[in-house]
Amino acid sequence: MSSSTTAANLNTYIQGQGFPILGLHGHPGSGRNLSVFTNHLAKRYQTFAPDLRGYGKSRCQVNFEMSDHLTDLEALLDRFGIEKCLILGWSLGGILAMEMALRLPQRVTGLILVATAARPRGNHPSVTWQDNLYTGVAGILNYLQPSWQWNIETFGKRSLFRYLIQQHTSTAYNYIAQEAVQAYLQTSPPATRALYTALKSGYNRLTDLQQIHCPSLVLAGKEDRHITAESSLETARHLKNSQWHCYPHTAHLFPWEIPQQVLGDIDSWLAEHPQVVGL
Q1: In 120-240, alpha helices (H)
Q2: Spatial CB neighbours of 39, under 8 Å, sequence gap ≥ 6
Q3: How far is CA 171 from the centre of its chain?
Q4: How remote is the C-alpha of 104 from its chain's centroid?
Q5: SS3 content of the chain, % helix, strand, coil (to 5)
Q6: Which regions of the chain are under pLDDT 70?
Q7: What's the pLDDT tens digit per position in 136-150?
Q8: How far apart are CA 56 and CA 199, in angstroms?
C-alpha cells in the first residue's frame, strides 16, 4: 500500500472521562488549538483531540488527499474503541466532521460545527507585503510577551490578525501566543497542498447534507472573512436538525474572542440534546 492509503497513527490529546467527544482542528492548527473546548468539556466527557495528518506532531512529508484524513480518523476511533462519538470541528475540522457523519452515520451522534461550511466561501481581501510584515512582527512580539497592549495597538490591529479576530482582547492574544504560532510553524506543506487542492476543485457537499440526521449546532462569527457567516448559515439550512448561532463583532477565531459565551451556548445545546452524549 502507498503511504497515502495507510492510516496514519495520529498524535492525540486525551482528557477527562465519559462519553467520547472527538475534536478536529482547523488549518493551520493542531489538537492543542481545541483546548478552549476540551478543557471545559473534559469536566464531563472524554475528549480526543488529534493532530491531523501533516499537522502538529502527526508528521507527514509525502503528499496526500483530504480523504486520507477520514481514513486516519476512522482508524483512530477503532484504536480507542470508540463506537459512537459527538464530533466538534473548527473550520477545516468542521468540514471533516460533516464528512465523518456522511461516512460513518451510525458512529456519529451529533455535530458541533465551528466557523465552517459545506460549501466554504471567504471574502478575505488580498494580502499585501505590509500585512505579512506586520503579522510577523505582531506574532513574534506577542509570542514573547503575550497580549502586550502596545504590540496589539501598534502591530496587531494592522496585521492579518484583524481578519481573524475582531475583538483585540488579551484573552484572544493569549490564545494566539500559546496555541496559534506553534501550530502554524508545525503545519506541513503536504497538509497545505491537500487542503488547497480540495478547495480549488470547488468543494461543495451541500446537497449531501440531507443524509445527515443527527443534531447539529452551527456556530459562526459575523465578520468571519475566511469562511463567511453566510456560508455557515447556508450549511445550517441544509442540515435537517440544526441550530445556528451567529456572534456579532467576531471573526474566524471567535471561540478565542468570546469563549464563555460560546461554551455556554454549547452547554445549552447539549442539555437540549442529551442523546448526542449517550443519555
Answers
A1: 129-144, 149-154, 161-164, 170-175, 181-186, 189-200, 229-238
A2: 15
A3: 18
A4: 19
A5: 50, 15, 40
A6: 1-5
A7: 999 999 999 999 999
A8: 22
Q: Closest Cα to residue 235, out of 109, 105, 89, 106?
A: 89
Q: One-letter amino acid identity for 227?
A: I
For residues 65 and 197, the answer to whether their CB atoms sit within 8 Å is: yes
How far is Cα 121 from Cα 262, in angstroms, rounded to an integer? 22
Grid cell locating 243? 441550530
The residues, any chain, with a CB within 8 Å of residue 29's CB and separated by 6 or more, are 52, 55, 56, 90, 91, 92, 93, 183, 187
Question: Which alpha helices (DSSP H) does the chain contain, by range?
Answer: 35-41, 66-79, 92-103, 129-144, 149-154, 161-164, 170-175, 181-186, 189-200, 229-238, 254-257, 259-272
Domains of the chain: 12-124+188-277 (3.40.50.1820), 129-181 (no CATH)
Cell of 18: 465519559
Angle at 172 between CA 66 and CA 69, to 5 degrees: 10
Number of C-alpha atoms within 13 angstroms, CB side, residue 2? 7
Q: What is the dihedral of CA 162, 166, 167, 171, to 10 degrees?
A: -70
Residues with Cβ within 8 Å of 7's Cβ and at least 6 positions away in sequence, in order, are: 71, 72, 74, 75
C-alpha closest to that of 111 among 212, 33, 247: 212
